[in-house]
Each structure stands twice: as C-alpha cells, then as structure tokens.
C-alpha cells in the first residue's frame, strides 16, 4: 500500500506527485513531493487521487500510449512536453496545441511542410501540419469534404493555428503557393486588420468568426475557396476598456499610412488621443511602446496593402475603404449639448466639434447641414395617408443623438467588413459542383469577464453548440459506430449540455426568444426582459440569480439587472443593460436614407444598398441574435456533412508570457473541452479505422497479382494473419477494420518496408491462404459426410413411421374386440372366485358348482364368437358382455344368500386376525418413531442452520422490498453528483477569473455549494455514525489494527472492527476503479461466479451480494455468534478447490483456501487483513446460500488438519486478561 504512486489534486499546479501512507474512512492520507499549503502530508478524498505512471518523467506523443489514462497523467504529459518546447500532443486523432508565446525555430518551415506531406498520423511527432495532411488524405480517400475545428479560449492560439493549416494546404506540398493559393493566404492579414483587436487576454484576438473553405478538384489541386464570417463585435467600434484597443486597422492607418493619404483623410498631425473611439482604450502602437512577436502596426499596414493588391482590390477601392475607416473616426468626435433655443428639449452639435462634423460629412459625401439635422432629429410620419402622409421632424435628446451617431458608425464599419469579405470571395474562384473542400473554422473561444454583455452571450452560445457537436461527433457518433459495426465496446457516459442550449434557443420561451419579444414591445426595458427570464425558469439548473455567484462583484448586481448561466466551461454572469440595444441591427430611417439618397461617396452609397420606401421615426427591428442563430445552424449543418478533425488550443498562463505553465488553469481548459471523456473513450475504443476496400486499394499495388485479386475482406484478414498482428490491436467490423491508438502507424510501416521483408510477408500470406483453402475443403468434405448420414437416418426413420401407421390402423380396427375379450377375461376371474366360494359351501354345494360351470360355458362361447367373427360390431360386443355381466351378478347374489351363515363365522375370524395385525403395526410404528427421533437428534444442528438460513432469506426479501420504495433517491443522488461536478467547474472558473481581474471569491455565499475542499458524505455513512459511543474517524489504519489485536474492551473492539473493515472496503473499491488496463479483474468479471483470480480475496459469488443487501439495515447476526461456511471455487479455469470462512459476529476471523494441487492457505484476522475478505457477513450472501454453512466441527477438522492455530475469541480474551 505504501508504495502506491499517485497524483493528488492541487488548485495551482493541477496535480502533485505523492505516495499513499494511510487509509481513512472517506479520505486517503498521501505524502506529497511538493507541499500543498504548509504541509507535505495531506488527507484528500478518494475522488481526488489518480494512479501515476511508474516513470512520471517519460513523455509520449499520444496520450493514449499512457498506462493510466486519466486527467492527471494527461496534464503531466502535456507539462513535460511543454518544458521541452514540444507544444503539440495527440489524444488519438485529436491535437492539443499549447500556445508557447514565442517563435520556435524551424517548427513551421518549408522543410517541415515537406516532411509531413503524405505521412500517416503518428508517423512523425505531433504537429498542426499532420492534422492538415490527415484531412487532405481523408478527403482524397473518402471523396468527402473535411472540416478542421480550431477551438480554445481567447489567447490560446486559434488564429495562428488556422494560418499554419491554411499555409500547409496552400503551399502545394512544399513548393511556393500558386495564384489561387496565395489569394487564400492573403485573405488572413486583411481579415485580421479589420476583424482582430487587442484584448486583455490576447494581443491579436479575432472579434468575429470565420469558416474558410479551400476547394480542390478531382486531381487534388486547389481550384478556389470561400469565406463565411459570423458575428462581428460592433460595440468595440465605439468603446473599449482601458487595457484594450479598437480594431487593428485604425492603428495601422494612423501608424503606417503615408502622409498624402492621411492628409486626404484628415488624419495628418492627429494622435490616437484625438479620437473619441480610440482614446478611451489603450492609446499605444504595436512596434513602438507595445511589443508582440506577431502584431506590428507599421509592418502590418504594409502587408495589408500588398494583400489587398493581390486580391485585385485596386487603388481607388483601397482609398474608398480607408475613407470609410477615417469617416468613422471623425464621426465619433462629434459631440452634442442641449439646445436652449429648442422648446421641445432638443440638442445641437457642440461648436468645438463642428470641424469633426465637417470632415465626417466631407468623407461621407453629404451636406454638413443635412448630416447635422439627421443626427439631432429623426423623421416621423403619421399613420394616416400612406407614403404621402404628414412628415414630422422630432428632435433628439443629447443621449439619443449620441446613440444615433454610434449606430451610424457601427453600420458603416460593419457594412465595410461585409464588403471586404465579399471582395475576397470574388477574387477567389468558387465552384460548388464536383469539388470537395477542406474547411477551417476559427471562431471566438469561450469568454468570461467580471461583467459580460450581449457579445459574450452570443459567443458562449456558439461555443455551447460547438461543444455539443464535439460530443455528438467524437463521443456519441463514435460509440454508435462501434455498436453498428458490432465491436462490443462498452458505452462511455459524458456530460450533456443540451439543457443549456435549450435554455438559450428554445422556441418560443428561450432566452433569445424572450429577448426578441421584449424588443418588439413599444417601450422595451432590460429590467422587464431579465425578470421574464427568471420568471420563466425559476428552478432551472443552468440558470441562477447573480447574487448566487461565487464572485463578490456579481452579487452586487440586482436580480432584474442580469442573470448567471452555468455553461459547460463554468458559470458566467451577464449584465442585461445593453442586450436590447445590441440585439437591434437597424438604423433610423432618416440616417439610412441620408446615406442612400444624398451621399456623393458612391462607394459608401453602395454599401448601404438601395433606398427604402419606409419613412418612420421608429426603428425597424432586425434581430442580431436570430440572424446569428440561423447562421450558426447553417454552419453546423455544413460541419455535420463533412469529416471532422479537432484542434484544441490551450492557453498556458493568464499573463501570456513564455515558459510559464499554470497547471490548474490548463486542467480547467482540458476538462471544459471534454478531453477527459475522450481519454476514457480512447482507452476502450479504436480511434483509427479504414474500410476494407480502401485498405485493399492502398496496398494491393505492393503485392503480386495472385494476392491482389482477392476479395477485399478476405485480403485484409489474410494480410493481418500473415503479419502476425495481435488481435488486441485491431478488430474487424462489418464494413471496416478498426485499430487501437498508434497501431495503424505500425501496420503502415510494416507494409512499406524493404522488398526482402515484403517478399517474406507475401510468402506468409500465400501459406495462410493455402491453409485457409485446405480448411475450407476439409469443412466441405465433413459437411458432405454429415449430409449422407442425415439421409440414411431419415430413410431408417421412414420405415419406423410406416410401421407405426400400420399399427395404428390395426388398433383402430380391432380395439373393440380386444376390449370385449378383456372384459370377458376380467369376468372370468370373478367366476373363478365364485367357483371357490361354491366349493366352500356346506349346503347346496353341487347346485352352486353347476351354476358356475354353466356360466363358465357361456363365457367360453362368447369368447369364441368374438375371436371367430372379425366383422363383429361394437354394439353387438357390448350387448354380449352385458348379458354375461347380468348372469354373473345374479349368481353372485344367490351364492351370497347361501353362504350367509358361513360368512358370519369367517367375519369373526377375520376380526380376530385384524386385531392381531393392528397390534403388530403399532409395535412397528413405535420402533420407527424411536428410529426417527434418534435420526432427528443426529441432524438437529443442520436443521437449525437451514431454518436460520430461510429466516434470514425471508427477512432479506422484506428489507429489499422496503428498499425499493425508497429507490427514487438514487436519481436524486445522481443529480446531486452532477450538480457537485458542475459546482466544482464553476469554482475553478471563478478562481481563474478572480486571479486575472483581482476579484474576490467568496465561498460563504448562499449559492448552495460547498467549499472546493469539502466533500459531501454519503447519507449511509452519516447515519451509521450517529449515536455511536466511539468516534474512530480520526484513527489511523495501523491504530485500528493494533486495537483489534490487543484490546479487551468488547464495545471498543467491535467499533474498531466496524471502522477497520469499512476502510478496507473503500480502499479495495478505489484500487479496483484505478486498476491498470493489464489487470485481470475485467477478465475475471466475464467468467463464472465461482471464478477466483490470484489477486482476489474471495470467490466472485461472495462479492456479488454486497450491493443487494440494504446497507442501512441492522445486522441480522448477533455480534458474538460464530458461523462457519464452505463454498467451492475455481482458479485459472481448471483447478477447483474449497474456500472456508469463519465469521466472528459480522466480520471474518479466519479464512482458508484448499486447492487440489497446492498447499492450503490459512489467513487470520489482525495479521492477514489485506488478503482476506473485507465484507460483512450479511453482505456476502453466504447465510442465504443453500449448503454453504457447515458445523463447527467440520471447519475445525480441516483447520487443524492443515496446521491452523487455535482461535481465541474476543470474549475469551477478556476473561483470560481478568485471570
């Protein structure tokens, strides 16, 4: 026990290494190599301890190669590889990428691209290029489009991974990219300039989602591409936090734009602090006061110019693009104040910002007065009169004018972004027919801040959907495939987030639907919207009030100002103050009409499309959330129609610095990404698979014609047999062959070895085929012989059938005659008795004898008549028999009258004989009773044992029936476990958020959760301890054992035995859960109930009853009773023996195994507890097993025979101590 090497959970490092030194009731004591808190010895729950590898410093390319597949060994392997600058790791076919925050030499060079071209996954070290190559080869093999989903938190490196995948796919297998490929690559810097920004967690964070498709023709050459984008974060255009920046394009234009261009745009001589849309954020440039290995504002502007030129966007169009960008900046500087001359409470433009208004109007191409009017008032039209109704100008208040200004700026920039994406797609050829593609999805990862708004809600909703897709594709679909192919792989349970998705998108009462309904009201408010959500879902597991959060800042939010959602990655608190405004994507008709109708900037006019005929002061509602939901549904439909590869990007630390590995944060990301469930699936599953036809077409060119002409399935079976592959490394399904992790790589290497080895392999394949054909021939001959024997057997049985039919016809014809003869024969016996009676008569003896002889003559005549006439009918035979019976009856009556006097005498004689016979029978019964009593005394003890067994069996039936009535509590326990697991992830996420934002985590909140270190005890454990005299929860394992061996206090001794055996049960259960894959326990589980493996402590049938007996029920056996049992067992499937057990009260005192071919094994409690059965007597089921209990003398006879020492009971020990 002390040599067990384990990983112990620790909040900062994730896990630390240690050794088990003691076993507790609910916890295990571990000595750790590093201190946890202030001590190196800790007591932790069994759920927080995981077995460790023998060599904890050895790293593996694929985590499936680990002996123990659990989250602790996964984290340790990633840590070791990260410290070696090996940032990529596999979990089967999935790639884990840890962001190093530094360039690694030659990791993405052109030579590296060449190395990975055409190589099977696992042949070379893990790399993002290997995933790209796998998708390309899968596309060629299956003729199906592929998708690569790059996911992870902000700052985890998703954007960079996407760029490297696109580069690998476009650079023509190691050569320079062609014109089409180059355009696809040039799209990245353009999209990053207009769609990426610096955030607190990432210097180059994508603030939109994109799905980039690279289309290939049948010859696997790039023929075109297409880019879809989702949910640009428009609120960033107008405001940012103090440590964040606006979109890169604003800073690139200010830092890298040439002077003539900036003069034309009104930017010359301006600084970042001169613009409202920039000066509330971080006013610094990358490449000057800010440094980053990827982002450099001046160089990035130069690269942007080159990329736009390569994408066929001419200089005039590029100037128009920069004009829109500059007009957004100038428009943001326009400020408003109350107009004292307006009696209706309107506002006006401040005099200090008139110059900005003039520049903005000039760049937009509209009259300055018209722009001023549109910003400070809106047009309304009366309901009557249609399009020719009365038009009214309604002045706007200061805050309304500011909102209108921001809305126009966001509309201009978002339409500009749409235009740029469309121009990129126009420059890249796109052919949707007869082409396959590889799509790369890069979308914002799961986001959480101290206060979150509508953008984070949409992003996290998208990540919930992607996580559900991951569960379906990797976990659910994988297990369905195993079941369809009949592989017999056990199912894996995983956390389903469909209830969270339903909460958000349920129609009609999901959060998004409630938001749309609120936005359509005449006067929508955030408070009413939030209250409706809490009213609709008062007890939903995934939804809670802000005051139930673990973050102190969240609990300051009122109930009608926000809500808390428990996402798959943890709980996030949302403030609903701007949900309604951000969900509406429409402009006032006056602003939109101004640009559409009066703008002289044809480029900007084209962005807004045709003028609308609707003239109204009220906003036309356009739901951003509904649009995003429909786009997301189309994206998921597209993903479901493709083969999928996953890249999970990991952020190693919150400060984004190189060389720092924060294990606790990384473990939280791995758990949120579902990697632990994948580990369990891959441990039991077969991640690599290939169809028989594909395998046949791949390798038939390497084999001679006589082998390449075989049936694909037979070809694969012959190939595997010849190579001598272990059947544990692969399985044949119905349509394909499945490989264990890493085994397909070994198979591929064997197939592509040198010609001499291939020649030997061909020889083995040929030999196996000959053997197979010979076996088929022998089987055919045996089948023919069996068929011949079957024909002979049927011929012989046909004769039996014919004979039986003839017999039936004969019986049917002659049955009445035979029955008549039998009746006459029976009557003849009566006649003979009458003849004897007549001879005994003393009077009229001759007359009686004459009557009898006459009747005998009639019987003989009737018999001759029946025999001689075959056609005699049943009625005639019946009449003949009735006549004879009548004569016989009359003769009997007359004879009885004659023998009346003699009968009286005979009756008296018979009565005398009866009395004598009764006396004789009475004596025999007395003798039998004495023998029975003697035999009953001999079997008295065994009868008592059987009666006690039946009584306990009846009591067990009543208790089990009672237990069923409370069986519903198991569902509550399961729900409690799910809530505890969710609460654990919420706590970890709250700690990470608090560490990053200097927030406060308060565990004393009434959120219904316990502390991160507490463990809710099982009700059975709590009830069992209630009211007990001795509290032994703090006693050590060794102290309990010593007390049992030496104590004379019977009550203390019984309490120690109870606690000692309960800890043994917990330890053995933990050890069974964490047994290595090579252990034989699972093999034993598939055999019979009497199988007993080497490491088992009792036959399996003993352990099968421990979950049936109600744990809360009182013990049916007195604590001082001595009971003995004997059951058979089998080891190694061959050797049979007997297993003896002596129970002192409820606990085992002595145990003995007597195998037939080895010496007996004798075990005594207090000395050999770890090898003995740890169950209570009522948990073993032995008392209810027929024939299992034996007498004391039978056990002691075998115990003494094999040299067992005398057993001293606890009561005897106390009496000896008193003497």
Automatic annotation (TrEMBL):
Superkingdom of this protein's organism: Eukaryota
Keywords: Actin-binding, ATP-binding, Calmodulin-binding, Coiled coil, Cytoplasm, Motor protein, Myosin, Nucleotide-binding, Phosphoprotein
Family assignment from sequence similarity: Belongs to the TRAFAC class myosin-kinesin ATPase superfamily. Myosin family.
Ranges in coiled-coil conformation: 824-858, 897-960
Keyword hit for NADP: no
Span of domain Myosin N-terminal SH3-like: 1-54
Native species: Orchesella dallaii
Domain Myosin motor: 58-752
Principal subcellular localization: cytoplasm
Segments for region (Actin-binding): 632-654
Protein name, per record: Unconventional myosin-VI
Positions annotated to bind ATP: 152-159
Region Disordered, annotated ranges: 1078-1103
UniProt signal peptide: none
Gene3D superfamilies per the UniProt record, alphabetical: 1.10.10.820, 1.20.58.530, 3.30.70.1590, 6.10.220.10, Kinesin motor domain, Myosin S1 fragment, N-terminal, Myosin VI head, motor domain, U50 subdomain
Alphabetical list of Pfam families matching this protein: MYO6_lever (PF21521), Myosin-VI_CBD (PF16521), Myosin_head (PF00063)
Subcellular location: Cytoplasm
SMART domains linked: MYSc
């Amino acid at each position: 026990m002390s040599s067990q090497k384990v990983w112990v959970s620790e909040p900062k490092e994730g896990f630390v290494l240690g050794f088990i030194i003691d076993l507790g009731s609910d916890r295990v004591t571990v000595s750790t190599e590093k201190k946890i808190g202030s001590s190196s010895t800790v007591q932790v729950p069994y759920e927080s301890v995981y077995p460790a590898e023998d060599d904890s410093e050895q790293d593996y390319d694929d985590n499936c190669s680990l002996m123990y597949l659990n989250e602790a060994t996964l984290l340790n392997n990633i840590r070791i590889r990260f410290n070696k600058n090996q940032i990529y790791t596999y979990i089967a076919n999935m790639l884990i990428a840890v962001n190093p925050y530094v360039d690694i030499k030659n990791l993405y060079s052109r030579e590296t691209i060449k190395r990975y071209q055409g190589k099977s996954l696992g042949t070379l070290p893990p790399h993002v290029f290997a995933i790209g190559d796998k998708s390309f080869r899968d596309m060629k093999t299956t003729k199906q489009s592929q998708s690569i989903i790059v996911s992870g938190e902000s700052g985890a490196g998703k954007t960079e991974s996407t760029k490297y995948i696109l580069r690998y796919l476009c650079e023509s297998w190691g050569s320079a990219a062609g014109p089409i490929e180059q355009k696809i690559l040039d799209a990245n810097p353009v999209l990053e300039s207009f769609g990426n920004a610096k955030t607190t967690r990432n210097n180059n964070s994508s603030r939109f989602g994109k799905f980039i498709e690279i289309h290939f023709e049948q010859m696997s050459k790039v023929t075109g591409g297409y880019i879809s984008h989702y949910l640009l974060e428009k609120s960033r255009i107008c405001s940012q936090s103090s440590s964040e920046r606006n979109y890169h394009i604003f800073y690139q234009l200010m830092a890298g734009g040439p002077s003539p261009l900036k003069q034309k745009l009104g930017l010359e001589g301006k600084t970042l602090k001169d613009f409202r849309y920039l000066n509330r954020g971080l006013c610094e440039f990358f490449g000057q006061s800010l440094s980053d290995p990827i982002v450099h504002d001046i160089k990035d502007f130069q690269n942007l110019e080159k990329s736009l030129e390569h994408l066929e966007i001419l200089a005039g169009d590029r100037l128009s693009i920069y004009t829109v960008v500059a007009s957004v900046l100038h428009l943001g500087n326009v400020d408003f104040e109350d107009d004292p001359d307006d009696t209706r409470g309107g506002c006006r433009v401040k005099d200090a910002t008139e110059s900005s208004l003039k520049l903005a109007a000039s760049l937009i191409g509209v009259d300055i007065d018209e722009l001023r009017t549109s910003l400070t008032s809106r047009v309304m039209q009366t309901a009557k009169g249609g399009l020719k109704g009365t038009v009214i100008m309604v002045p706007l208040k200061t805050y309304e004018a500011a909102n209108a200004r921001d809305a126009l700026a966001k509309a201009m920039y978002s339409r500009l972004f749409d235009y740029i994406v469309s121009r990129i797609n126009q420059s890249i050829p796109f052919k949707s027919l007869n082409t396959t593609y590889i799509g790369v999805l890069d979308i914002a990862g799961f986001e959480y801040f101290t206060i979150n708004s509508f953008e984070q809600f949409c992003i996290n909703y998208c990540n919930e959907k992607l996580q559900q897709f991951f569960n379906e594709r990797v976990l659910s679909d994988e297990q369905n495939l195993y079941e369809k192919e009949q592989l017999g792989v056990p199912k894996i349970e995983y956390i389903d987030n469909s209830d969270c998705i339903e909460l958000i998108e349920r129609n009609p009462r999901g959060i998004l639907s409630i938001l749309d309904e609120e936005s359509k009201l005449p006067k929508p408010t955030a408070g009413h919207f939030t209250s409706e959500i809490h009213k609709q879902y008062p007890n939903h597991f995934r939804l809670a009030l802000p005051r139930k959060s673990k973050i102190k800042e969240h609990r300051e939010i009122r109930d009608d100002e926000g809500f808390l959602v428990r996402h798959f990655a943890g709980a996030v608190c949302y403030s609903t103050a701007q949900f309604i405004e951000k969900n509406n994507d429409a402009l006032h008709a006056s602003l939109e009409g101004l640009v559409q109708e009066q703008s002289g900037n044809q480029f900007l006019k084209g962005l807004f499309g045709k003028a609308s005929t609707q003239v109204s002061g009220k906003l036309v509602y356009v739901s951003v959330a509904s649009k995003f939901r429909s786009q997301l549904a189309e994206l998921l439909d597209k993903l479901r129609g493709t083969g999928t590869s996953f890249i999970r990007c990991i952020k190693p630390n919150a400060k984004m610095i190189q060389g720092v590995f924060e294990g606790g944060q990384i473990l939280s990301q791995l758990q949120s990404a579902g990697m632990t469930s994948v580990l369990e699936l891959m441990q039991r599953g077969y991640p690599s698979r290939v169809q028989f036809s594909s395998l046949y077409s791949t390798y038939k060119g390497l084999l001679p014609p006589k082998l390449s002409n075989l049936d694909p399935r037979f070809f694969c079976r012959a190939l595997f047999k010849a190579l001598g592959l272990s059947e544990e490394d692969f399985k044949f399904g119905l349509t394909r062959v499945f490989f264990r992790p890493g085994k397909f790589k070994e198979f591929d290497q064997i197939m592509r070895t040198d010609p001499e080895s291939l020649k030997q392999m061909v020889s083995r394949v040929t030999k196996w085929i000959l053997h197979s054909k010979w076996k088929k021939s022998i089987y055919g001959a045996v089948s023919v012989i069996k068929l011949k024997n079957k024909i002979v057997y049927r011929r012989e049985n046909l004769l039996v059938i014919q004979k039986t039919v003839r017999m039936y016809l004969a019986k049917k014809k002659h049955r009445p005659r035979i029955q008549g003869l039998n009746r006459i024969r029976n009557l003849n016996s009566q006649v003979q008795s009458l003849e004897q009676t007549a001879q005994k008569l003393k009077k009229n003896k001759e007359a009686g004898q004459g009557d009898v002889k006459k009747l005998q003559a009639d019987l003989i005549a009737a018999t001759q008549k029946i025999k001689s006439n075959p056609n005699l009918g049943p009625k005639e035979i019946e009449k003949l028999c009735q006549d004879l019976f009548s004569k016989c009856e009359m003769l009997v009556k007359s004879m009885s009258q004659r023998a009346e006097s003699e009968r009286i005498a005979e009756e008296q004689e018979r009565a005398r004989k009866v009395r004598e016979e009764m006396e004789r029978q009475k004596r025999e019964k007395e003798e039998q009773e004495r023998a029975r009593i003697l035999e009953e005394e001999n079997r008295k003890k065994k009868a008592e044992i059987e009666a006690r067994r039946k009584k306990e069996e009846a009591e067990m039936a009543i208790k089990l029936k009672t237990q069923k009535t409370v069986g519903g509590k198991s569902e509550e326990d399961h729900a409690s476990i799910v809530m505890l697991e969710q609460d654990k992830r919420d706590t970890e996420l709250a700690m990470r958020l608090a560490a990053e934002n200097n927030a406060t985590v308060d565990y004393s909140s009434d959120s219904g959760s316990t502390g991160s270190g507490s463990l809710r005890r099982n009700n059975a454990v709590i009830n069992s301890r209630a009211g007990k005299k001795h509290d032994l929860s703090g006693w050590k394992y060794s102290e309990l054992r010593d007390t049992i061996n030496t104590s004379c206090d019977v009550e203390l001794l019984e309490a120690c035995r109870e606690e000692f055996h309960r800890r043994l049960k917990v330890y053995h259960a933990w050890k069974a859960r964490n047994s290595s894959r090579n252990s034989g326990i699972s093999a034993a589980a598939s055999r019979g109930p009497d199988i007993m493996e080497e490491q088992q402590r009792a036959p399996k049938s003993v352990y099968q009853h421990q979950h049936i007996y109600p744990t809360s029920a009182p013990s049916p056996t007195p604590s001082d009773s001595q009971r003995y049992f004997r059951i058979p067992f089998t080891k190694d499937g061959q050797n049979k023996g007997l297993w003896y057990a002596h129970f002192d009260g409820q606990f085992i005192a002595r145990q003995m195994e007597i195998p037939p071919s080895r010496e007996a094994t004798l075990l005594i409690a207090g000395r050999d507890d770890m090898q003995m059965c740890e169950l209570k007597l009522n948990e073993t089921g032995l008392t209810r097993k027929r024939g299992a209990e034996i007498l004391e003398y039978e056990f002691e006879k075998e115990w003494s025979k094999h040299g067992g020492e005398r057993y001293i009971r606890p009561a005897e020990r106390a009496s000896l101590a008193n003497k």
